[in-house]
Amino acid sequence: MQADRLAQEEAERRRVQQSMALYPQKEPSNPVVAEHSSTLPNGNSTSPVTLGAQARIPKVTMPEYHRFHGSVQIEALRVARHAGEIMDEVIKHLVGLNGADVQVTLEIQAKFPDSVPDHVIRTVTENCRTLHFDSSTSFEED
Questions:
Q1: C-alpha separations of 42 from 61, 63, 67 in Å
Q2: How many CB atoms lie within 10 A of CB 37?
Q3: What letter does residue 136 receive in the DSSP assignment?
Q4: What is the mean pLDDT of the chain?
Q5: Which residues contact 55 (CB under 8 A, 6 or more apart)?
Q6: Cα distance between residue 134 and residue 97, in whole Å
Q7: 72 with 86: CB under 8 angstroms?
């Protein structure tokens, strides 16, 4: 079994060598160089291309990104699960970058069909103060 495989590999190697002998690759004596750089439709530029013995693929200038902003709505009853997923799938990758300054903001918006009871207003307001919500946190009249 292994002898058959080795024989097949050897036969393939010989075919490749014969093919290369029959069709040698010629190197041009004077490689052609493009006259100018090109600009791609997306605004990126390419460097000159050398054609011939040492053909090169054009170098594309990639944009440099220095900021990220993202927001997502999450279900109020599943905040812990969604926040964990966001931490694992997004925030972890951002804070892992050298010198990254990552800030995460949790914004809550709530509307109620009826007036909010006083005890709920007191509890939420006190909890927000304890948790260092910013000073703009408040209940509003209609």
A1: 11, 10, 20
A2: 13
A3: T
A4: 81
A5: 49
A6: 28
A7: yes
